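Assemble and predict.
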Amino acid sequence: MDKKIKSAKNIPARFRGWIQAAAVLLTNIHIPNLFKGKIYQGKAKTMCVPGLNCYSCPAATGACPIGAFQAVVGSSKFKFTYYITGFFILLGVLLGRFICGFLCPFGWFQDLLHKIPGKKFSTAKMKPLRYLKYVILVVFVILLPAFVTNSLGMGDPFFCKYICPQGVLEGALPLALANSGIRAALGHLFTFKFTILVLFIVLSVLFYRPFCKWICPLGAIYSLFNRVSFLKIQVDHEKCIGCRKCIRACKMDVKVTETPNHPECIRCGECMKACPVDAVCYHYGFSKKKQADDQSEKSNGKGDLKS
Amino acid sequence: MKNKFKKVIAASLAVSVLLAFTGCGNNQAPSADNKKQESASTSTADTAGMDEQSKKRDDLYQQENQIFADHKDAWDKVFGLMNKNSAGESLSENYADVLAGTVESNKDSFTEEEYDTLCKDIETIRGIEEELAAIEKEIAEADSANGGSSESDESISLFQDFTGKDLDGKDVDESVFKNNKVTVVNFWFSGCKPCVEELSKLNELNETLKTMGGEVVGINTDTLDNNEDGIKEAQEILKAQGASYKNLTVASDSAIGKYASSIMAFPTTVLVDKDGNIVGEPLMGGIDDQANYDQLMEQIQAVINQ
């Protein structure tokens, strides 16, 4: 009985691949546009999607939140964007980095690449690189677009322009393939960013989600909310037998039993699958107090059943 | 074992995702062909004519290739000597002239026998090429007649029957284009940094073009339908960037308004001839980039020389 309840709570982890595929499809719903080389420019494009998904992807349903943030911060009219900041806070509180693990198209792309058989390397010794994404967030997404401006106060979207490999994968490549005018306009900048994309494709085969761990400014934002998000991972220390299988299973190098809501956790649920006693599970809702209540209630119930 | 199988499936999935991306480009060409064929098949008489023409064309190509095959050694020598760099420039001449030029300038490389054969072959080729040129022309004409309703042609005649206003509210119609040998139409919007940054260069271009019988005209997509706020902002930006050339506002549901709204990469610059037809390919990217500027000037020169 108890086991059933637990595993029911872990359903998202079991169907993660399918959820990711569905999310990618919903995020890029205008598939025919890929062949026309035209970008969908309807009303929905004023909305942001949760994951890192280029606005310039012909199939894209909505705007990339990181791209939109830079566009507003870098425009001459505004210095800050309350709409998109609010969007980050809302999604951060509702889901946190669950978005990285389940909804982000570039995350899925890296997951798939990592499934290519071959030698895999651990990133456990490269933990300091994690902080690079916060630097990129502050410098390339916020400061440079806001303050490096021309005489009219217009800035460039520095992250999109100089770093983002998703822009090349989803934007530049399909557009250039289907549209001769854009193909003709490709220059050194494209070559540079294409190299970044190839680099991360290769790294993704060797390491698990290198872009999410080290570069992604969107992941950096959501990571700040992991500790306060409604969606959490709980470790039942009464059940835990200390086998450390969850820690070994974690590809994001999180010590699950000590810090289940670490900023790096993308909620993929590998730890739950690894746990032999179902001590790790998702929890959605408010504070730990309630969680404690739940626990005691449950144990009471169990007691009742047994008696 | 099961795990390995899963891995292989996943790997092939990943590869197919990658291929899907490369796939779209390759699919593009055939789909365009299909469209053409579809529009051609609407009138059967035309289709039959087209088929016959292209069959004749293929025959002629075959004949030509046969000539090359018959005297393979001599011709391989010629092709080895051909100046690859000049290939682009000589596209308009008869192919036989190109061949003759190569053979003449490298006369020493051939034996007398070879030279005679080559000269004879070249004359035969000249005849074939002339026939080919005539057929190509007919096919092209049939194509443009058939494709009258196709999207690309619609965009080409965008500025015929065109009405709009300049940003000061004065009415403007297609006579803008009639007075110029070439009009450079630049599409931009106020929040677009590369667009705004090329405005001063466009103003310079306008001054240069005036002496050549041309003009620059801007269309800001934020000003469509006489949008007052948009116009005010555009005027401020134009003033700040020192751009004094004509900027127009048009109705968003007009042909040109729809064209402007369908542009995905700004700035986009097109050339319009005096009949209001867009000529050549649209240029994407600012002309403050020297390579883009040179490319545009080259196209402008080509239109003026027509």
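Residues 44-148 of chain B form one domain.
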